[in-house]
């Protein structure tokens, strides 16, 4: 695939181009690529080099994104490219985020066709995931509206590091987001991710109420797992919508970070703290821990999760089978 013209840029003096897709606002001289590695200045124009280039394509349970209250028990075709606009030392998909994996070009119409064909396997649509999808922006904006037109659902699993206007455009065609809030202190992002917290907070605040949003935080010992930080994160999310799902995941050593794995007791204590403010807090990377959804009105068990085996014995006609409460916070029942 030839390089594609990128959106969101400013032409500066002396052939310099500023990318305005994400908060880095990379100023690029001729031939220079941005932090994401997939956008560069070519002859005074901003080009994107990963348009249509797919590194991974697989049918996943929707819970693997993770999304627990968006069409539970279904599958979704998942596609990823390469590159990332953050530099997390603990990256768990570093081979495609920061490496140079092989790719296969798939033009937008073909990906829509493939996605549509997966309906027969229980798929509800397409998730843009694996690496950071926001830097696949042009391709997503050429694919997602077509998926919507075909009655398919669209999902982004993202770090949320994107500017306001590009996000506004995405909100017209993306149904659900899982957004990584990687830490909730001002030092964590610059030290561990080469970014800033505030733009991610703005993304979450703009998206909640306009799409289905769930949050994931990977807890790293001594870095972002203090009780005060977890409490602040939960309080902030509750101020937006206390029914926002928060996933607290267990860190394990990967990429450039070799700290010991997060103790199980840390995750469970964090969950306990967050549940003082939020209605739904689940744990990740911890096989065997209960991650079931209960009715907010009567406590009845609605959704049972055993890894990716999902049962919904407590839901009858989109209501709680015991008390009859409406379950509007669970989409796709």
Tell me what the structure shows.
The relative contact order is 0.12. The protein has 333 residues and is an alpha/beta fold. The model has no long low-confidence stretch (mean pLDDT 97). The two termini are 40 Å apart. Helices cover 23% and strands 25% of the residues. A hairpin with a 6-residue loop joins strand 17 and strand 18. It has eight helices and 21 strands. It is globular, with a radius of gyration of 20 Å. It folds into three domains: 45 residues, no CATH class; 233 residues, Aldolase class I (TIM Barrel, Alpha-Beta Barrel), CATH 3.20.20.70; 42 residues, no CATH class.
Quickly give the CATH architecture of the largest domain.
Alpha-Beta Barrel
The CATH topology of the largest domain corresponds to TIM Barrel
- Quick one: CATH class of the largest domain? Alpha Beta
Task: Report on the biggest sheet.
Answer: 8 strands, mixed
Structural category is alpha/beta
Which labels suit this protein?
3 domains; 333 residues; eight-stranded mixed sheet; single chain; three-stranded antiparallel sheet; alpha/beta
């Amino acid at each position: 695939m030839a390089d594609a013209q990128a959106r969101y840029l400013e032409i500066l003096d002396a052939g310099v181009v500023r990318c305005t897709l994400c908060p880095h606002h990379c100023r690029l001289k001729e031939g220079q690529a941005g932090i994401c590695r997939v956008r560069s200045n070519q002859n005074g124009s901003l080009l994107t080099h990963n348009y249509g280039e797919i590194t991974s394509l697989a049918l996943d349970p929707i819970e693997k994104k993770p999304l627990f209250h968006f069409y539970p028990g279904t599958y979704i075709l998942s596609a990823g490219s390469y590159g990332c606009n953050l530099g997390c030392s603990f990256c768990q998909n570093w081979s495609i985020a920061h490496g140079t994996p092989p790719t296969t070009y798939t033009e937008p119409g073909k990906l829509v066709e493939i996605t549509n064909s997966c309906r027969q396997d229980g798929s509800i649509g397409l998730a843009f995931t694996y690496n950071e999808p926001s830097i696949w922006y042009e391709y997503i904006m050429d694919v997602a509206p077509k998926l919507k037109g075909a009655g398919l659902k669209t999902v982004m699993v993202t770090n949320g590091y994107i500017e306001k206007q590009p996000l506004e455009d995405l909100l017209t065609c993306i149904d659900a987001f899982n957004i990584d809030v990687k830490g909730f202190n001002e030092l964590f992002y610059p030290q561990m991710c080469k970014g800033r917290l505030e733009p991610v907070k703005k993304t979450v605040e703009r998206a909640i109420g306009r799409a289905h949003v769930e949050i994931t935080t990977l807890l790293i010992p001594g870095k972002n797992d203090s009780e005060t930080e977890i409490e602040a994160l939960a309080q902030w999310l509750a101020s937006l919508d206390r029914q926002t799902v928060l996933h607290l995941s267990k860190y394990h050593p990967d990429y450039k970070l070799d700290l010991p794995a997060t103790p199980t007791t840390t995750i469970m204590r964090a969950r306990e703290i967050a549940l003082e403010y939020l209605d739904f807090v689940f744990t990740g990377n911890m096989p065997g821990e209960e991650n079931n959804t209960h009715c907010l009105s009567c406590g009845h068990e609605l959704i049972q999760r055993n890894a990716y085996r999902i049962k919904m014995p407590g839901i009858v006609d989109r209501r709680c089978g015991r008390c009859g409460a409406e379950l509007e916070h669970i989409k796709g029942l």
